[in-house]
Amino acid sequence: MKKYKYIFLLIGLSIVGCSDLEEEPIGLLAPEGFFQSTGDIQTAVNGAYGHMLHRNFMSREMSMSLMLRSDMVNLNKNVTNAERVQFNDIKLLADNANIAVYCPKCYQIIGAANQAIAGSELVSADVAVKNKIIAQAYFARAFVYYHLVRQFGDIPYLDKPVTDIQAASTMSKTPAAQVYLNIIEDLKFAKEWLPNTQTTRAIPAKSAASGYLAEVYLTIGEFQKSYDEAKDIISKESTYNLGLEADFQNLFDATKSAASKEPLFLLDFNGQSDGDQARNYQAAFTGIRNDAQYGYGGGWSVEVPALAVYTTWDSRDYRKAFSLDATAVFKGVTVDYTQFTNTSIGGYAAGDNSPHIAKFTRKAGPAAEGNGRTTKSDYIMMRYAEVLLIAAEALNEITPGTTEADGYINRVRARARNTAGVATTFPANVTTGLSKDAFRTLVLEERRLELAFEFKRWYDIARRKLGTTVFSASGLEGAKANFDPARDYLFPLPSNELVRNPNLLPQNPGY
Amino acid sequence: MNLKNKLIIIVILLFNITLYAQDGQLLSGTVLDANKIPIPGVNVIVKNATNGTTTDFDGNYQLKVKSGDVLQFSYIGFISKTITITNQKKLNISLLENANKLNEVVVVGYGSQKKSDITGSVSSIKAEEINAFPLLNAEQALQGRAAGVVVQSNNGGEPGAPVNIKIRGNTSINASSAPLIVVDGFVGASMPQASDIQSMEVLKDASAAAIYGSRGSNGVVLVTTKKGKSGKLSVEINSNYSVQNTSNRLDLLNADQFADYQTQIAINSTGNPNATYAQGPANTDWQDLLYRTGSTSNHQFSFSGGSDKINFYASANYFNQEGVVINSNFERITFLSNIEAQVTDKLKLGFNLFGSRGTKNGVPTQSTGETANGGGDDVISLMFRFMPDLGVQDANGLNTTSTIGDNIDNPYAIATEAINETKTDINRSNLYAQYDIVENLEFKTTLGYSTTNQTVGTFRPSTLIITAGGGTGGKASLSNLKRTNLLSENYLTYKTEIGKSKINLLAGYSYQKTTNERFSAGAQNFISDSFSFYNLGAGSVSVLPSSSFSDQEIQSQFGRVNYDYDDKYLLTATVRRDGASNFAANEKYAIFPSGAIGWKVSNEDFLKDNATISNLKLRGSYGVTGNQAIDAYESLASFSTLFTTIGGQTVGAVVPNQAANPNLKWESSYQTNIGLDLGLLKNKVTLSLDYYNIDTKDLLLEDKSQPTYLGFSTLASLRNIGQINNKGFEISLNTKNITNNDFSWSTDFNWSTNKNKVVSLINGLDVFYDASPGYFSVDRTHILREGEAVGLFYGYDYQGVYQGGTLPDGTATFAGAVAGDPLFTDVDGSKTISTDDQKIIGDPNPKWTMGITNNFSYKNFDLNIFFQGAYGGDIFNLTNVQLFNGDSNASTAVLNAWTPTNTDTNIPRVVANRGREISSRFVEDGSYIRLKNISLGYNLPTEFTEKLGLTNLRFTVSAQNLLTFTNYSGLDPEVSYFGNGGGDSASSNTSQGFDFGNYPTIKAFNLSLNVKF
């Protein structure tokens, strides 16, 4: 026995551990078995919304690109980052660093939506119940493809999760016209199954699907359908719980915008972030450098409208006062925009002596991080005023000179006359009986001001082929000599993507 | 061991003594070493007879002998002595230590070997070398001491900064190049205190390291801690104190010069000769304000001893360093205990225990590169950048922030008000049993467990306007990492001799499991700045909490054959089969074989009695080792969660993260080593030469060749695609120049060269990456290109200042440049500089590194002089990119910038923002030779120590980094900026040679005291 007790001891010590080496991750999600309930489908749809809150999408790279490309926002001349200069100066290269990051992000949103749609088939529940949820994913997919097709034209189109990586890696582009058809189908599905209202405007309801349908039709010149769709929404204003916010400024008040009746769809930032996930950058990029007005040390003065945007905008327009910040506070002293770079009073040498965008700063509340990063601002993707303007624009193309079309614009203007509760006389109602061309110009100008800095302007320029006018010497930003109408209404597909999949060739013309 | 057993032992001892005292002539005496210290356990045997004994605790022996007997006294590590007995009754013997290093026993994986029998490439560093001068950490002892081993701090002289070891170059691109650390058999342990270490062995080639299989490709460092010796109880006290200073400072503009500089910028940028700059109210030398004289105190107490049945070593250590940057310090307390008991003739049990607590209070350094705040909380780079004409606080008592360049808080405010505290507890226990099953067959089993518990707390009070996040009332976070490591190893060793053949066999099984648990939480907008990070609930805005768990298992079988024929021909073969949970489904198991041969030429008859050549051995080895570069769960298809808010609420969200990758496997290094060991003149001169060639294949590279439209969050997938090659040559030369009674001089020299080359990349395409601080907004600073070395600098090739008029041939400027702007090589011939004009502009890999130690001793004095150096590596001085950029304070060199009247200069005209271009203008030669240590020691003569009742009393004065010879213009040629991951990315193989914002290297003066009794 004496001997054996040592043997037992040795065995006891040495017997630890024998494993099949299979990994069983905890805290990570394996795709197999994830989809069990309708709640899981919603969680997958939420992934699509989540990706929309990443900086690569509307918070920073893509929104910056769209803004700088337009005639309403200039790049501070001291900013030298090539990817920004290329957008602002209309000399895009195919390896542009912004495109290189926001394009993949767009497809991640689409991938998440596709996953939700495919995953719903694994859940046994009533089709109507499931459709109500995946209709959101159809909307999200259409919403992003609509951005992509307007920017790039023909693009790779996927409507299922990728299982065969090899096949998906060698696919060809889908022509823009087909992409539009797919977008329309998705939006129709979404409109059919989404409810009339949702608990929050961050989740699309019927109105969002319908609003985007109207805009998509407008973009592709299907004016009758566009008008019909817009009219349909307007006729269901109360069903959809829509309306114009009484005070324009409340639309950009972080404490009020989400509760407003006006947005159809918005990206909802709540002042929290996980790194660049859900970190909201607009206040930083548009805010005045060194400005103490909002408590966080000012923004970065990167995306700054040309001075002409300010000087050409009628000062009686309440929307101007709210859209632009013409004063800053340096060291406790309020100074006007001509002093923004005056270092002796606390200005910033590399800033910009021009009024800055106020929509993301003035009522955005405090920022969780320095320089205005991570405020609670909501980014409104579409609001009811735009639906009215779409209806007006589309109707004018079908039947010019109607009072109905005038009326839609007058509603938007009437709201603009409500200056923080005080009625004013500007902007006046439209002159009746305008010609088709004059009305078209008017409605585009109305969109430019009403929807200023809401990421819409470049699409209007591209859609209406306004480049030769707005980028001429008489444009707001002066002559943009690089502008080439044969090339510049589309952006180049990311060059490295064409290397990774040569079947995506040819590149867009001129790049 | 209980009292009863103790009594039994004592009885047995007594019985033995009386046994020998039974008849005949009784001889007694004491065996001492050269220092007159008794040696216990010396074997005393009568040759050609059966009787014998061993010395007791005090070196005494008694033995029955008769006249004419030949007595042999032998003890490991000492030269045996034989004495013929006449008829004396007392015989005192002194044994000399065996100075022949070839008989040294060297620890190898799962065993030990005589140094002369080693066939692989192994460097050994003993306690004397480790303790030649005070070290901040044990890893430092390897620097310059072992050929082919490069040691670098993650962050200059930062108190508590981790240290990287690299053996024979970068054997990977994306995976770590850090060697496996094995402490007393515990794989993956943390380093013990330097003064507790008996020896460190560096296993460099595959023959030595392949026994560690998939974790051996970066080499292995085997650490053996001190054990007690049977004999007298020994108590040792080590105490040292040092003062430290920055070794260098930068010459920066003062407030007046800065105002002139900014005025010139205003003139240059507006074209208005009357443009002005409004000078601030102060004149602050931020370096003066933030640097201080640092200090280190290190106190160690240990005691050891044992009987013939049990031995022990125990120590306690207290280390405290006050860094040279204000508010940075590190404190650590460490305990170590090793106990070993011979339970029966056949069974030995042992227990090792290690525990430590380290507390590091850091200042933010090595810009984390948050683009958001312009590298804004990095006090080192900020003290160079920040405007000298501002004070710490403005007229309103608020901390100043920069009014030019990026919005940043002043560095003094950050250093004094920001809190970054890291507390690390490490506990390790290892129980082992060794059992002699039959003669020569031994079984050893070990069971070990270690835990690391680390808490990191950060706090930014509301008074830090920028870094605290928009003045929103401060922000704080607390995170925790708990890592456990369970190890069970069991192996059999068998030794036999058949004729002239000696055979050693080893076979074993090992199982190891590591787990990691993390969580972190944070909050901001506190009602008070007084909570630090200990009241997260008091923040009205919570920051997203996170947590994660991972575990990894590895189970292995391993074996080794050592064959020795006639002490001339040696053969070693090892194999290890590793199965690891983190390997992908199709590649769960891997086999790593190695083989080596050795020829002891000097034992051949024709050299046996050669007067000059006392040792000559040729060695050759080939083998395969691996690198476990795959993280847990990395090969699995996964969804990931995403932080998402809807309607103001945070909601659960998942997105497709990556597709499954069932073929992902380890990286493999195919290593060849050819070596020669030569000893001349009775080994007064020993020389080792080693040549190696390492082909690392199946390197895990991020494959970005998959289109990004597939919709996965992970855009790059890992593939076993790349291949790199390292070739090198190492020389170790040790000479005993003079050995007299009173004076001796010896020199240890080592030199190594390594050349690495990228052999293949994905589709042969260049890989560009950026390792500059995030706020630089630079796309690329480095390149990987087939046929070139790893991690070359990539940028514009600076050609001096454009003087106006026609461009010199082959050069161009950026569009819109005027006279005084920089000129670059026009690579693409487009006459304008664009990204197409970037090229390789520097190579951070040194051509060679060396270390030379001279040891002198004269009577009771000894002197150690240790130089260490590297030649031929470039440094990219990112600090200067900022200091010549215009939007911050500047180097005084800008006073010589180009102006229409000062055209003969290499410094372009000053402008508001140079765009932080990456160009060869900032690439410098980083070669250096440095007097790493000089120390003078004095041992009090024995007659005094005896009076004091001490065994030994020693004083040492020393200085570290006293002299550095270099042409590098920056602070220090041992640079350690690793890109915008900060210190976390320090294991990177691909972003070496950058200098930016790391903690300064220090110059130290030490006084130490060592007492033994």
Keywords:
heterodimer; A: 511 residues; mainly alpha; Serine Threonine Protein Phosphatase 5, Tetratricopeptide repeat; 3 domains; two-stranded antiparallel ribbon; globular; B: 1013 residues; mainly beta; Immunoglobulin-like; Ferric Hydroxamate Uptake Protein, Chain A, domain 1; five-stranded mixed β-sheet; 10 helices; 8% helix; CarboxyPept-like_regulatory (chain B); transmembrane (chain B)
Explain what you see:
The complex is a heterodimer of chains A (511) and B (1013). With 511 residues, chain A is mainly alpha-helical. Chain A folds into 3 domains: 34-194 and 481-511, Serine Threonine Protein Phosphatase 5, Tetratricopeptide repeat (Alpha Horseshoe); 204-268 and 386-449, Alpha Horseshoe (Serine Threonine Protein Phosphatase 5, Tetratricopeptide repeat); 282-377, no CATH class. In chain A, 44% of the residues lie in helices and 6% in strands. Chain A has 20 helices and 10 strands. Chain A has helices spanning 2-14, 38-52, 55-59, 61-69, 82-88, 97-120, 127-152, 165-169, 176-193, 206-219, 223-235, 282-286, 307-311, 318-323, 384-398, 403-416, 436-450, 457-463, 467-470, 495-500; strands at 74-75, 263-268, 303-304, 324-325, 327-330, 333-336, 356-357, 378-383, 418-419, 422-423. In chain A, β9 and β10 form a beta hairpin. The mean pLDDT of chain A is 92. Chain B is mainly beta. Among the domains of chain B are: 3-94, Sandwich (Immunoglobulin-like); 101-226, Ferric Hydroxamate Uptake Protein, Chain A, domain 1 (Beta Complex). Helices cover 8% and strands 48% of the residues of chain B. Chain B has 10 helices and 52 strands. In chain B, a hairpin with a 4-residue loop joins β34 (667-680) and β35 (685-703). Residues 6-22 and 981-986 of chain B have low confidence and may be disordered. Chain A: Residues 68-218 form the SusD-like N-terminal domain. Chain A: This is RagB/SusD family nutrient uptake outer membrane protein. Chain A: InterPro entries: SusD-like_N, SusD_RagB_dom, TPR-like_helical_dom_sf.
